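Today's session is about reading a structure prediction critically. Students often jump straight to the picture, but the first step is always the sequence itself: look for stretches that repeat, for charged clusters, for runs of hydrophobic residues. Only then move on to the predicted structure, which in these notes is written as discrete structure tokens rather than atom positions. Here is the chain we will use throughout the hour.
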Amino acid sequence: MSQWFLWALLSSLTGSPVLALIVLGLLWWLGDRFSFRVLPDPLRRLARFRRTAQLRSTLAVNPHDRRARFELAEWLLEAGRPGEAARVLRPNVEAGDEDVRTAFVMGAALGRIGKFDQAEQALALARKEDPRFRAGEIELELGRQRLARGDFLGAREALERLLAERPGTVEGRYLLARALTGLREAEAARAVREEAWREYQLLPPFHRRHERAFAWRIKPWRPAAVALVVLAVLAAGTAMLR
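Below is the predicted structure for this chain, in token form.
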């Protein structure tokens, strides 16, 4: 309720409930930046944009700079542009780069544009170089890709390896439950979803940012309930100020 009173106070000071809500949101965001860091960070997006622009300029001057090319491919993959990431990174692969990071980024990019066979080959190379890369990140990517193409058995194998390496992952359990559902193992899938929710509840607040989306998919009524409460508070506040 303290946030409600703060919003009401700001509304009376600014004369605008909407402006008060914006100010309150900014205060929440600033507080989060100095504490748990669970809210989205628009400054990171700006930094990503600036860095990708710098890397493109570097490659325009020196297209043989393989380090800049790899970094740009990583940024593009993170930004959700796997096709471009694969095109940018391909010259490094053709030049003989076979390290685990290059193989992983290429495998992830290829799989996300539907080139699953080539992706499997690249990710197999990455696993050969470092089976424990980023605490099971290769297995997580394999699980995602195999689910996308309907290979539920292969996805289960990869995701079970992931859980052995990263037992606290909520995303991994959510994906494993989907694979089990595809294999018509409904009871096992239900048990895995319950485990995922328990793991999420045990996570410290600053670790929940990535896992929250998958936890809410397990219990979709949670975000709906939060949204209804927020709307009810805003409606009540607006009515009181009229």
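Discussion point for the tutorial: The mean pLDDT is 84.
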